[in-house]
Amino acid sequence: MTRDKKSRVEMPRRDPIERGSDFKEVALGLDPVMAMAEAERCLNCKHKPCVSGCPVQVPIPEFIQLVLEGQFEAADAKIKEKNSLPAICGRVCPQETQCEQVCVLAKRGQPIAIGMLERFVADQASAAKKAKGNEVSSEKPEPKYKERIAVVGSGPAGLTCGADLAGYGYEVDIFEALHDTGGVLRYGIPEFRLPKAIVDEEVEYVKSLGVNVITNVAVGLTLDLNEMLDSGEYAAAFIATGAGLPYFLNIPGENLNGVYSANEFLTRANLMKAYLFPAYDTPIKVGRRVAVVGAGNVAMDAARTSLRLGAEEVYIVYRRSREEMPARLEEIENAEEEGIQLMLLTNPARILGDDQFRVRAMDCVKMELGEPDSSGRRRPVEIPGSQFTLEVDTVIVAVGQGANPLLTTRVEGLELNKWGNIATVDEAGATSIPGVWAGGDIATGASTVISAMGAGKRAALGIHEWLTSKRGDS
Question: 52 by DSSP, 3-state: which?
């Protein structure tokens, strides 16, 4: 039976009231019947625009064809030819602005649900592996080359670069400053969007490729990057330490108790296992009324986490309109379904405290949109006489992050740009230090998981080509 190509499957989700009180995953995934029905919609285009829209060049039509044939494990293997973290990408990547945006079907209807199918394939392969009792082999593949590569940071860029370098035949050591792997995948994204068990599985897969992961080592503090290279222990290095320096509003009252950066708030919740409360006692005081300033994915994560930690009312305070909100539509819809209130065209002016220096309210002004600014979005302009006070006892600032300075300020000869990001000289991410590459948020500023992965792939290829040239290989 031929199915209507315009009818796209919808991802089942848990009930908003139920899910708003726990940290279990919201999206339930597709079942095989749904996945194969969606795969049937694919036109298997000759020019494959979806592949060019993917930062890591996943062979999308090929894996979808395997889904249609019911070969789910083969589909997973096909994805992993280009993407070592499919279960993560299927959950958190903004496919709607990348591969799905350029899908031919999107011109007259709805694009193929590429992200849902990627998640389905990864989850099916994982379930099949567990059912067979397969364990990740502890035996590391024998490296093809003698050179050893250091990767600093175990987030999406670092994991991807490490996996690709191992695939080329190098021994790779990934250094992670924290006690566990994943970077933003573990400490930034909440459990209800990306379960920690999924991160664990994907990291174990990368290790199975031959990558060594060393935690509790802060390169730049406990190890000197230049010494690691000068000693000959490492032939090259890739820096992927991410964006970890939160931006603030620079308004009065930001030093009051009860004001968090979204970075701190989410890291506390993840690092200290707030999602397992009350089994873990997490030192985060979330009051009855929470205001989250900003409207990106991080803001949605902070708002929805606040709700799950016991807040009765949660507001997203954003100075532009709904159309300009940078968060994924899916995350905005999820937040609204759970009861998060959007206060649009609203800008904080100052945060007010009580006699104990704790947040009690936030003064705001209403805005209207004027002419476009340098970002192409209409500039918000304050409406005179529109001031009002919003009673809240917690304020979470989610207006972006800058470059993590822990390593960059301690590596001699490493050039930075005016924003504090590592300056790179080519697409692969080569830096001012020969043999050192950089990629992901530390080079570009805060971006997406899949963009960081793309940077990791380009850097791995750049490192391989550089070392090949030095060896004089044909």
Answer: helix
Domain boundaries, given as residue ranges, for the chain: 16-132, 148-244+402-471, 248-399
Q: For the structural domain made of 148-244+402-471, what CATH number should be given?
A: 3.50.50.60
Can 16-132 and 148-244+402-471 be said to share one CATH topology? no
Q: What is the pLDDT of residue 376?
A: 81
In CATH terms, 16-132 corresponds, of 1.10.1060.10, 3.40.190.290, 3.30.2130.30, 3.30.300.20, to: 1.10.1060.10
From 96, 102, 122, 114, select the one nearest 48 (Cα to Cα): 102
CB 51 within 8 A of CB 58: yes
Name, in order, each residue with C-beta under 8 angstroms of 411's C-beta and a sequence gap of 6 or more: 220, 225, 226, 433
Instruction: Quote the pTM value.
Output: 0.93
Contact criterion met (CB below 8 Å) for 182 and 160? no
Quote the DSSP letter at residue 155. Answer: S
Say what the pLDDT of residue 138 is.
Answer: 59
Torsion, Cα of 317, 322, 323, 324 (10° steps): 0
CA–CA separation, 389 vs 361, rounded Å?
7
> Cα–Cα distance between 74 and 63 in angstroms, integer?
8
Give every strand in the sheet of 436-438, ordered side by side. 211-214, 171-175, 148-152, 236-239, 436-438
Write the DSSP symbol of residue 219: B
Instruction: Report DSSP state, residue 2.
Output: P
Over the chain (474 residues), what is each successive 10-residue block's mean pLDDT? 67 95 94 96 93 95 97 97 96 94 92 97 94 70 92 97 97 96 94 96 95 96 95 97 93 96 93 74 84 97 95 97 93 97 98 96 96 84 97 97 90 94 96 97 91 96 96 74
Q: For residue 141, what pLDDT is reported? A: 80
Q: Tell me phi and psi for residue 138, to 5 degrees.
A: -85, -10
Instruction: Give the C-alpha separation, 304 to 172, whole Å.
Output: 37
d(CA 415, CA 462): 19
Give pLDDT, residue 1.
Answer: 39
pLDDT value of position 3: 46
Q: Has domain 248-399 been given CATH number 3.50.50.60?
A: yes
Q: Within 10 A of 96 (CB to CB), how many other CB atoms are there?
A: 17
Number of Cβ within a 10 Å radius of residue 218: 16
DSSP lists the bridge partners of residue 130 as: none
The whole-angstrom separation of Cα 202 and Cα 209 is 11
